[in-house]
Write a structure and sequence with these properties.
Radius of gyration: 10 Å
Largest sheet: 3 strands, antiparallel
Number of strands: 3
Distance between the termini: 11 Å
Number of helices: 1
Order of helices and strands: HEEE
Strand content: 15-25%
Shape: flat
Length: 43
């Protein structure tokens, strides 16, 4: 994923709710319909 691409997806898909996940490097975001995303990237 390119720099800034995740932020565009967050705004486009309205991923407004942040869900903390224990032992995850970052929060998971989701919208009202259950669509979710995470900015965690592995090499």
């Amino acid at each position: 994923m390119r720099r800034g691409e995740y932020q565009n997806r967050v705004e486009r898909e309205h991923l407004d709710e942040k869900v903390p996940v224990r032992r995850a490097p970052d929060v998971v975001r989701r919208n009202k319909t259950g669509l979710h995303g995470s900015s965690c990237v592995t090499a």
